[in-house]
Specification:
Distance between the termini: 50 Å
Helix content: 40-55%
Number of strands: 16
Radius of gyration: 30 Å
Largest sheet: 6 strands, parallel
Oligomer: single chain
Structural class: alpha/beta
Shape: globular
Length: 748
């Protein structure tokens, strides 16, 4: 079918366009252009050229010719403050972005502006954030604006960027490039192993607490030798533990999550050639969620930005909620002092919530003294008032939450379970909510509970993969060795450790020599040699073959599924564990389809950097239950804040330690998650260690103006008010029954 032929172009137009086509390169084109370019009617290309390279090239050149006008048209979608932030590209810039103010849009538009208007090569742009979810969202949006050229822009989390730098340069610090990254489970296993091997006694301190102390010492920049001198026996013991931990991870060619940025920063600080390479590579740097940076991360960014100082940081001091992991809100509060001449732009228009919800959030956060100060507003005036649910105890409160969700969904059939989120202050509050959800037959998903990758059978498989990547990793070497069983017991391993110490070898190399070691029986030595050869064989296969295919072959070779049958007498448990293995193998295939680095190293690196919110599945229709910390950056149409009792939210311990302002910021984060409606719940009593404790509503509720509540959380009802409320509830219940009957009548 022939295309309709518009009026021919004038010879002058044709000549001028031809000259322009010859004078410009068409190599830099993008969807930023094509998504909004419509060729004018006098721009005619003969139908015979329709699919030729010449035609495509001319179209690209035409798009470039009009790019500045197109870009300005797209910038008109932004509000004045957002446009100002996008256009300010040179020198240090602080964008104070309130909750729901479109900061991700500003970041991606600013990157597109640098690409399209400033002609900055994509390789010279770096955007850093804290979560994989945020990095993925930025990447998708930027590709929608700027097209394929956006794939060359570095959009990364802090730790992913640190790993990238280390993979290329870590040998300068004495590590080998095939290092593995220990996750928390690996770290805890190593702490337990050290305590057992060294017969250490830490009264009242569990491995998780000791690991927390190791992490704190690292982030404070203290080596075991630098810890303060003390005669305290426990402190001396901890110093020995910390020293052993560092010695073993280094010997295993392993690093932990904290080491990633510590080592990357050390590289940049101590090796001029490495620092200059990255400063020349990343000429424009943007940092998201800047309020959550700790001193180490701030130093890392400072070393990357160098003398150019083209550093744009985006954050909200009112949402700084991670002091427990080293984040310091003073960093964002003193940005202008550190970077002289820095500009500050405030984004205060909210595009998420109703004005009533924002009024509640503003009323709470204004009570903090250490803040920059801003006032969120929205064009979406009014909104539903905040509903309050009051339970007799935590179980009754949870039941009322799910009864309310069921009631709302019955009255409005368009509401899905996934429209609802229930926020809690701490993980232990999830239990009564889980029980209430099951009792109400409401589907739900927990964010921040047990990870899929922490299940024993999955950790066993991951141990094999880590050993294939780095056979010097003795922690995972021993885990892999013990499942499936090979008849190599703890006493044999002790003899092998003695042999390793005497001959300066590690277990992997010693296993190759098992037949030459005295006191090892023939079958035992044979099992060790077989295990070492298995590692050698599959290391080659993972290097040369496809990740998912080789992993499936490894599972079959190990007879892993059959070995799982011996782990339980319950057929359902066995089936669940086997299904978990199948799901894990499936996840490898999905990883290959979506990753830029679909290798064993790429998978293990990604696995070590997974955060709680990466497990959130918005495609399934389930109520989401998660902590406020995990909810940061997310939004839901309907939000319940559960457990708003004083001593719980805010946390009594945090307030006693001077952390009330951070607890208030955490409350502000919770209040700014809902788009349409907010419900707050609390209870009068809770049971703790078989003792009933009387509770009071959160002090933060007193900071919200009474007129914003549908029903007051503090007022004790009179007999008349109780009767009126019950009559209203009965009226709503009857309306619901009439609606159900009408719905059933329509079906029949």
């Amino acid at each position: 079918m022939r295309a309709h032929r518009p009026a021919a172009r004038s010879p002058t137009c044709a000549r001028s366009f031809s000259n322009f086509a010859k004078s410009r390169s068409a190599s830099r084109t993008s969807l930023f252009h094509f998504s909004i370019v419509s060729f004018p009617s006098n721009f005619y290309l003969a139908n015979s050229f329709a699919e030729t390279k010449v035609n495509l090239q001319i179209k690209k050149i035409y798009a470039l010719r009009f790019a500045p006008h197109i870009l300005m048209s797209r910038l008109n979608d932004l509000n004045p403050e957002q446009r100002q932030a996008v256009g300010q590209t040179e020198g240090p810039l602080l964008i104070l972005a309130g909750a729901g103010s479109g900061k991700t849009r500003v970041i991606t538009y600013r990157l597109a502006y640098l690409l399209e208007s400033k002609r900055v090569p994509p390789e010279n742009l770096l955007a850093v954030t804290f979560t994989n979810k945020a990095a993925r969202e930025m990447k998708e949006r930027l590709e929608g604006l700027a097209g394929r050229v956006a794939t060359k822009v570095t959009l990364s989390t802090f730790h992913s960027l640190g790993v990238r730098i280390l993979r290329k340069n870590v040998e300068a610090l004495g590590y080998r490039k095939n290092f593995v990254i220990y996750d928390e489970s690996d770290q805890l296993a190593l702490i337990r192993e050290i305590i057992k091997d060294e017969a250490m006694e830490f009264g009242g301190h569990n491995p998780a607490q000791l690991l927390g102390r190791v992490s704190a010492a690292k982030n404070d920049g203290h080596t075991p030798e630098q810890l303060h001198k003390t005669e305290n026996a426990e402190e001396l013991l901890f110093r020995d533990l910390y020293g052993q931990y560092q010695q073993r991870t280094r010997g295993f060619n392993a690093i932990d999550f904290d080491d990633i940025l510590i080592l990357a920063t050390k590289l940049l600080a101590e090796h001029v050639e490495v620092r200059e390479y990255y400063q020349n590579l990343y000429r424009y740097i943007m940092v998201d969620e800047y309020q959550d940076t700790n001193p180490l991360q701030d130093r890392f960014i400072e070393l990357l930005s160098g003398q150019r100082r083209n550093l744009c940081v985006v954050g909200d001091d009112d949402q700084s909620i991670y002091s427990w992991r080293g984040a310091n809100p003073e960093i964002i509060l003193h940005f202008e002092e550190k970077y002289s001449g820095a500009r500050v732009i405030k984004l205060e228009q909210n595009y998420r919530s109703t004005q009533l919800i924002l009024d509640a959030a503003n009323a709470v956060i204004k009570n903090n003294k250490r803040r920059k100060g801003k006032n969120l507003w929205t064009a979406w005036q009014g909104g539903a008032k905040i509903k309050v649910l009051r339970g007799a105890n935590e179980n009754d409160e949870a039941e009322k939450v799910f009864a309310e969700i069921a009631s709302q969904r019955m009255l409005d059939a368009k509401r899905r379970c996934s429209d609802y989120a229930i926020l809690v202050r701490t993980n232990f509050q999830m239990r009564p909510l889980e029980e209430a959800a099951r009792a109400a037959n409401v589907p739900y998903q927990l964010i921040g509970g047990d990870s899929f990758y922490d299940r024993a059978e999955i950790r066993d498989l991951i141990a094999y993969l880590k050993v294939m990547r780095n056979p010097d990793d003795e922690l995972n070497f021993k885990r892999a060795l013990h499942f499936p069983k090979r008849g190599i017991g703890s006493q044999t391993l002790l003899r092998m450790h003695a042999y390793c110490a005497a001959h300066h070898k590690n277990l992997y190399r010693a296993f190759h020599e098992a037949e030459f070691i005295e006191d090892l029986r023939g079958p035992m030595a044979h099992a060790m040699i077989q295990f070492a050869h298995l590692i050698d064989e599959f290391r080659r296969k993972f290097h040369d073959g496809q990740l998912s295919v080789v992993a499936e072959e490894l599972v079959k070779r190990l007879d892993f599924m059959h070995a799982l049958q011996e782990t339980s007498h319950d057929e359902k448990v066995i089936e669940k564990r086997q299904n978990n293995v199948r799901e894990f193998l499936g996840s490898l295939k999905r990883f290959e389809q979506t990753s830029d680095d679909p290798t064993l190293a790429g998978f293990l690196d990604r696995l070590s950097l997974v955060s709680d919110t990466d497990y959130l599945n918005r495609q399934v229709d389930r109520v989401v239950i998660l902590t406020v910390h995990a909810a940061k950056g997310l939004e839901f149409p309907y939000v319940f804040i559960y457990g708003m009792n004083d001593g719980q939210f805010p946390s009594r311990r945090a307030c006693e330690e001077g952390g009330e302002e951070e607890e208030r910021r955490l409350c502000y984060v919770a209040l700014t998650r809902p788009q349409r409606e907010l419900t707050i719940s609390f209870c009068d009593k809770k049971t703790r260690y078989k003792e009933e404790l009387a509770l009071e509503p959160s002090r933060f509720l007193k900071e919200i103006p009474a007129e914003l509540f549908e029903n007051s959380p503090f007022k004790i009802e009179s007999v008349e008010e109780t009767a009126q409320r019950e009559a209203k509830d009965q009226e709503e219940a009857l309306a619901m029954i009439r609606k159900i009957k009408a719905s059933l009548g329509q079906k029949h």
